[in-house]
Amino acid sequence: MAAATPLPMLHNLGSINLDHVYRVPHLVTPGETLASHAYAVGLGGKGANQSLALARAGGRVCHWGRLGRRDAWARETLADAGVDISHISLVDAPSGHAIIQVDDAGENAIILYPGANHGFDGTTLETLCDAIRPGDWLLVQNECNGLAELLALAAERQIRVAFNPAPMTDAVGELPLAACRLLFVNRTEAAGLAGLPVETPSDALLDALAIRLPDCELVLTLGAEGAWYQAGGERRHQPALKVSAVDTTGAGDTFIGYYLAALQRGATVPDCLAQATAAAALAVQRPGAAAGIPTADEVARFLSEESP
Questions:
Q1: In a 3-state reduction of DSSP, which class is residue 75?
Q2: Phi-psi region of 223 (alpha: psi -120 to 50; beta: other; left: phi over 0)
């Protein structure tokens, strides 16, 4: 029998952070000192989380990243999950890290220090882009530097780009977003890109983004309100699954990883949305970002239980 054709590779230029997670009764207010009733350190960063989710979903992913030498264990954690770590450099600089509060309702607040994630230069980006083959995807978030140059390189080389502009900043609006094939945004990010208040109804956000980025597929994630897919004249809604949230940290990253893994396999948009929504629903029921990402088998069982 002929060997199966391998899936296209997804290359993820993504942050690798150490997450310092504090469980608190409520999110700290200005001037307040609040005791934490639990503390843990683990692998995080939107880039690393999305690579982990892709790998656990059965996707094929190569992570491009930078990590402080003393934190090499984080690279091995990615490798153990099935991520290609051949382009993760150990450097003489502090790793990126995040201070995360998670309250008793499962909501979170995060302080981020970029560290080694902001050490990419133009030569490195060009070398990394040389590794991309026809049919591959490039995934980026907004926790590494060099995005404008990277998106320009992708446009020149006709590389398919999926972009998650998180955390949202004013600088995102100045990026060459027309280079993106697929955009993942939550309500805050969508409102920022559209130049509208965050309270704007989802259909108005989608209308505004369709005008600004007419050639880009869009996935708008809205937590308990589900998710929307938009491309050209097509618009499709995926309802959320009703679960009790323990920790929402990393739920969006889980959604993105599972959506892209399904897309790699050639799944339809409805199936991509269903897989991603189920994975995110499982993730919010567990503490931790990376630790909360489910496996493909867990998602399959969950979907079978949810089916009527």
A1: helix
A2: left
Q: Which one, of 68, 82, 171, 66, lies nearest residue 119 by Cα?
A: 66
Measured CA to CA, the distance from residue 156 to residue 165 in angstroms comes to 21
Our CA angle for 203, 167, 32, nearest 5°, is: 110
Q: What is the sign, positive or negative, of the torsion defined by CA atoms of 281, 285, 289, 294? A: negative
Q: In whole angstroms, give the CA distance from residue 65 to residue 144.
A: 9
Quick: pLDDT tens for 253-295.
Answer: 999 999 999 999 999 999 999 999 999 999 999 877 788 899 9
Where do runs of H (alpha helix) occur along the chain?
A: 46-56, 72-80, 122-129, 147-157, 187-194, 202-212, 251-264, 269-283, 296-306
Instruction: Say how far residue 262 (Cα) sits from the centre of its chain.
Output: 15
Residue 164, token pair as written in the block? 């998650």
- The strand order across the sheet containing 96-102 reads 38-44, 17-23, 96-102, 108-113
Cis peptide bond N-terminal to 270, omega within 30: no
The count of residues in the chain is 308
Assess contact for 220 and 205: CB atoms under 8 A: yes
pLDDT tens digits, 231-263: 988 999 999 998 988 888 789 999 999 999 999
Q: Of the residues 203, 253, 271, 297, which is catalytic?
A: 253
Q: Residue 5's CB: how many other CB atoms inside 10 A?
A: 6
Here the tokens at position 236 are: 């499709």
Map residue 278 onto helix, strand or coil: helix
- Region label for 195, one of left (φ > 0), alpha (ψ between -120 and 50) or beta (otherwise): left
Residues 178-207 have pLDDT tens digits of 999 999 999 999 999 999 999 999 999 999
253 annotated active-site: yes
